[in-house]
Batch of 3 targets.
Target 1
Amino acid sequence: MNSQTLQKVDHAALKANQLFIISLNILAFIFNQVWIAAFVAIVMGLGSALKVPGFLPIYKYVLKPRGWMKPDVLNDNPEPHRFSQLLGFLFMTAGSVSLFLGATILGWSLVWLVVALAALNAFGGFCVGCAVYYWLGRFNLPGFSKQPPAGTIPGMKPKVGASL
Amino acid sequence: MSSDTLSFVLRFGLAMVIIGLGAFTYWQINQRLLVRATNNVFTLLKKLPDKPVLVYFTTPDCAPCKTVQRPAIDRVSKMLGEKLQVIEIDATERPDLAKVWGVMSVPTTFLLDPRGEARYVNNGVARAEKLLEQIQTL
């Protein structure tokens, strides 16, 4: 049993972010438009810097007000999700740079890896980046101090709203 | 066919194959959940039901459960009356049941046919229309 305090995290905003990452990257691949992948990388980078999901404004000002997505606020740690987005940003940056340099197989593989991980999170409720965060936390690395909410598998979407 | 068009077709085809593989994997996981639910049906029911059963996993602080899933289930329940049995489980009170049924998030709904076989699982919110459509096939 740990004694950390959880925060309110809107998983619908995270999901919207993941769906945009998935959709734009697939479009980038189909139309062979590297700049779209680079755009996704930049948005994820900006989101990481501002500590919010990169495509949050679309959720906040378009999807939520129109009722197309409803808030799904759970007691959770926001830090693992930020770390996950940062990892995605690094993969997307590496992928985009590879594509600009002509390493197409490596570049698109990295882009598809981000798509696969985002899809696993959006549709399966499992955040691989969060699981990596919690795994690193076991080694007492600085900056990885949070533990998964009680009764939740590291990386899984919390189903129990315990405020530890 | 120009090389640009060919490239587009190949890329589109490859994207569809990858998405299809992902969807197949997701479907496989759901099938395993259904087998698991069928095997554990007697953790919830004392005897085989003679009507379809909707098993609804929720938690007290689950916002979409309150705003969407609960009203949808109420609507379906009102429409079908005695023809449907609804079992609601609070995963915070019965984590053992959530575990044996393989529930990873809430809301999760299972639909069992009258023989107690789990036929559908909805991970996340399932609207009333979808639930009705699924119940009609049981």
Target 2
Amino acid sequence: MNKVETALAVAASAPVGRSLWADARRRLFANRAALLSIVVLALMVLLIVFGPMVSPWSYDYIDFDGTWRAPPQIEGMHFFGTDQLGRDLFVRTLVGGRISLMVGIVATLVSLLIGVAYGATAGYFGGRIDSLMMRGVDILYALPFMFLVILLMVVFGRHLVLIFVAIGAINWLDMARIVRGQTLTLKNREFVMAARASGVSNGRIIRRHIIPNLLGVVMVYVTLTIPQVILVESFLSFLGLGVQEPATSWGALVNEGARDMDAAPWALIFPAAFLAVTLFCFNFIGDGLRDALDPKDR
Amino acid sequence: MSLLDVRDLTVRFKTPEGIVQAVEGLSFALAAGGTLGIVGESGAGKSQTAMALLGLLARNAQVSGSIRFEDRDLLKLPESQLSKLRGNRIAMVFQDPMTSLNPYLRVEVQIGEVLERHRGLSRSAARAESLRLMQAVHIPDAAQRLRSYPHELSGGQRQRVMIAIALACQPALLLADEPTTALDVTVQAQILRLFAELKKDFGVAMILITHDLGVVAEVCEHTMVMYAGRAVESGATQTLLNAPAHPYTRALLEARPRIDTPLTDRLLALRGQPPNLLQLPPGCAFAPRCPIAIDVCTQSVPALRSVETGRLAACIRA
């Protein structure tokens, strides 16, 4: 036993083998566009979280003496100017960013969890279970999205959670289909057969052997879904179905800004720029991840 | 009392094209600690026999007969009981070590998985045991290799890991489905030596599936030759290889490349194609390719009969 213990101690101190993930990370960081996007996105998140604390203004403080102030208003601390109600656009842009990013990330996580579990189960068990589960997906696909959203709004009233629910309910369908397709090819791989021949249970095979092998594809899809979800939220807010005043999101701000863009272009430019930069970053990261995780390039 | 007693095992697959007869009326027995080689061409039913033993046949399979293992009929066991046997009492080593390990998991996790599942070891106990197993299959720097990912190991090392996983729970029966086919010749020799050594140390009974008669000669006490889902000959390896009774076994032996034949000579190849398993001929399946076939051969399937003590052959002319 002593020999075993010393050998294990040696192993613990030995250099750890480079995993596929470490490999992928190295390759991702070697991709300049992706690395820059990660840095910009991190700065964006810091700004959105801490920016509103720095400003003396709050996002819903109305000042009728200070409407339509053009930026930069350094001495008045209105860095991005004010809107038609005299509200500070710097704070509103950042607070709107909180909502937009939150919707993007939470709705994507919801669709990720449901989609991966559902798709992996359907794909792994195959046969009748698969047919049944995927027909369910097809039925949900057939529901028109806008109809679903309007219906939810009418029945439950406008609420932020409903946006998560509505977007998540639609997005996990794509995720489930992608994951199911991948699982179908994975389950015939020899290591899954080897795991079955070792008596590993089905649940454990899905968790331990199938899902880790899916993560490459899924991660890429997630980074492409987040901007898509942010855009959907913007679209809903643009239609007046999204967040409710005085709370705001980038979509809602762009909507308001677009109304008065002749008189006050800054009310459009700042939120639009934040939205565009964020979407760019996510897309670049998604591209970078796809390249980094592609086994053919390894 | 033998460890494994297979009686009249038949495996058929229902496909859109018809019923594929993968294994027909196969019977054999294996004593504890014994070794059996199953030889045959692709499609002879060797791998499906192994899969039937593990209860891992495809969904469209229809199985009949009986597989008695440690006094239980595996074909009658519920799935939950079977999965307790798999990897525990019956373990399997697969053909291609390149694809049989999960690329995303460290070696220690993959060996430990079996130990945690069947022996209920804690994670740290499983690690210590994994290390011991890695040393038992002679992986150099075993402690460091435990922390490796499969792609950092060579083909031979990966196959050693697969063997370590198979031996983790000290199974009574080890199925090896062409364990050396994907490896080059020198590594092949090392792995075969390892099998012989482990058989002695662990006292495990082994079924070695291969199409390489050299492998059988090296490792197996008994050999069974399969053709088109049936056993055509079986017996002690030495006598079977020295004096084959069935014309198919003879043809296989003649088709082997030998080191003492001049390079200018052509290798003898078996004439014709293996039969279509969807539509087997009425008589002996080998008759269309058999050099000594007579009319009777194409009329009824010859039964496996004793040609001398401990020797069975399914040929009326043997």
Target 3
Amino acid sequence: MMKSLQRLKGKYAVVGIGYTPQGHIENRTALSFYLEASVNAIRDACLRKEDIDGLICYRHFKPLLNEAEITPYLLAQHLSIQPSYIGQEANCARNQLITAISLLEAGFCNYVLIVYGDNALSGGRTFVDEVTHSEHYGYNEVCGMFGPIAGYALAARRGMMEFGTGPDTWKEIAFNQRQWAHLNPQAVYHGVPLSREAYLSAPFIVEPFRGADACLITDGGRACVVTSTERARDLPHSPALILGIAEANPSVDINQSAFMAGQTGAKQAGPIALKMAGITLDDIGACEIYDCFTYTVELTMQDYGFYRPGEAQSFFAEGRTAPGGKLPVNTSGGLLAEAYHMGLTPLTEGVMQLMGRCGDRQLGILQGTKKPEIILCSDNGGVFQTHCTVILGRP
Amino acid sequence: MKNLLLTDLPDDYTRTFWRNCKEHSLTFQRCNDCGHVRWPLSFICPRCSSQGSEWVQSDGSKGRVYTYIVFHAAFHPDIIGKTPYVVAVIELKEGPHFLAKIIGCNHTQIHCNMAVEVVWEDVSSELSLPSFQPLALR
């Protein structure tokens, strides 16, 4: 298997990114954000919409504001395209990029659009009954167990016991990412201060998590276009090559899982992706880690092997992952401080950094940073149940 | 969102589990072929894929807190005024990791690996909920 994966190293690339207004954007359907992000990504790649022959949506939660259910064919209808392939994952499987590459490699598609959007903030999405799946319907609820924050908090508490992590580690992660958000005018928390003291003095929501441990709930959308590196030569942007990619899906519900303190999918997928890319962790110039919660960042990077269990506090201390630090992590502000677009928040930021299009936060231009050659991105779904590692590089 | 009651159970396994709970008996399926005690309830054994199983009663007095969280916010109208409360994953002697409330103590007294035992909460005429309390605080 490894040999065939290595054959795909750098063969496919991300060639365009689509943004939308994000944050609190009222009077907009989720579909409108899907559409705007899609059109912008297609334009950014200098393609025609008719070129898009693969359309892959992230999962969509229940529709808000009485709007229609988001489906890939609804999106295709509104874009007036007829892709050869349409797909949408249903339960946080983070398979979009591997699906895209597989379709391109097999020859079913030439240009695949991956997209997500939501009106979660103005629509009042609470994430109380999204994501979590109980033993049978209603069981979590009678136990008083609500929302993904509770599932990740269960994991975080076990991590506190097993390897001594805790709020003193998580405050560093939240603080560092907030510094990145201050360099990103599009970030929802741009200019919204967070001190370490303010983190620690905030009340618990689901102990051991406070508000600053949790990702944002936002309106907006994000999209990207994937094609072959060969086709990318005819397009305007220097493409972000997919050097390595792997999924691993532990799948077990958090209520029964034994991997609350690791091993997560990152432990399995990370080495496969690194080997496919032919690199080691030392070659990674920056990370864009799926950060639904602070502990997700800690455990994912721990399972990649950036530090040993329990060493995250000193690893993240003194701004090592903040602007000017040795290893930049979540340079847009991430899901914690930029905006929530599922795995497209970290992935598109990795792409934009390699393309050199990140303005004040651009690595290599920002003081104390180096121009990144290779960026590691991660995606994660359920409560540590699904995982994808993506290693991006320059041509 | 509906009230916090279990209704319209999907199959005989779930109905049997909750009927036994009503009798204050915490029961699990044990595989007839490999002996694995499983949770969640399932049509097949997750270890050997066998379909046959029998019900065994858990010795609910030999659980340990695998992990726990404290809800300081009320995420449902039925919960308002009931915070803070504790939800935990209990590692049972028989094997299953079982989500349940921890009651009968202050949340600051709880820690991982603490020994707990089942204590029944009669929630309604149909539902008795297996919750747990620390053995040391009995």
